[in-house]
Specification:
Elements (H helix, E strand, L loop, with lengths): L2 H13 L4 E3 L9 H8 L7 E6 L6 H14 L4 E5 L5 H6 L6 H19 L4 E4 L4 E5 L13 E4 L3 H10 L2 E3 L5 H17 L5
Parallel strand pairs: 1-2, 2-3, 3-6, 6-7
Antiparallel strand pairs: 4-5
Helix pairs in contact: 3-5, 5-6, 6-7
């Protein structure tokens, strides 16, 4: 994969009217933020789903990056919240948290991140994250920031989705299993006064 190939794919997807593309994240991929930054200027409508990684990057840095790329892409950024991943890769990235703690970090991360993208100054003291006077000076184009996408099937994942996420993602599973999971996420979101 080189830049010319990625440009061909992006232009083709844009011309064919695709809503957006997922740019993968992880050690076996090119950096998604840099790829999106390289492709956004050569497309007109295509949106780019790019990952934030709670536990790997601070929420304030992620919020600044998201606001910047949202402005540079003229409001075509989507955010993929990636909590899990390969345990070996996590250790290679310095993440040694348990499954439950990774989702606690994600909850705290999104509490800070979302407030920042709404233009708020944030003071936050959690179990894992702590910020004082955090703010971003240059807002995103999309009101309240780019939409958040997220997937996860565990109880802590569904709680995070219900509390924070705009669009819930799931693996390709039998339709009945997907319907059951989506119903559970919708019910939890409704209990939190939200719609996913």
């Amino acid at each position: 994969v080189d830049l010319a190939y990625l440009q061909q794919v992006a232009i083709a997807a844009d011309n064919l009217g695709f809503y957006g593309v997922l740019i993968p994240t992880g050690k076996s991929c090119e950096d998604a933020w840099l790829v999106a930054s390289a492709l956004a200027p050569i497309t007109k409508k295509l949106r780019y789903l790019v990952a934030v990684r709670p536990g790997l990057q601070p929420p304030t840095l992620a919020a600044r990056m998201a606001a910047t790329l949202d402005r540079l892409s003229e409001g075509r950024l989507l955010i993929n919240v990636v909590t899990g991943g390969d345990p070996v890769e996590n250790k290679g990235d310095g993440i040694f948290l348990s499954h439950a703690d990774r989702y606690k970090v994600t909850d705290e991360f999104l509490s800070i991140y979302s407030q920042l993208l709404k233009g708020q100054t944030v003071d936050y003291q959690g179990e894992h994250l702590h910020v004082e006077g955090a703010e971003i000076l240059f807002p995103p184009i999309q009101q309240d920031g780019p939409p958040l996408f997220f997937g996860g099937s565990s109880e802590p994942a569904i709680d995070v989705a219900a509390k924070h996420i705009d669009t819930y993602l799931t693996w390709g599973e039998p339709p009945a299993a997907v319907a059951e999971k989506l119903a559970m996420v919708r019910e939890r979101a409704q209990q939190a006064g939200r719609t996913v």
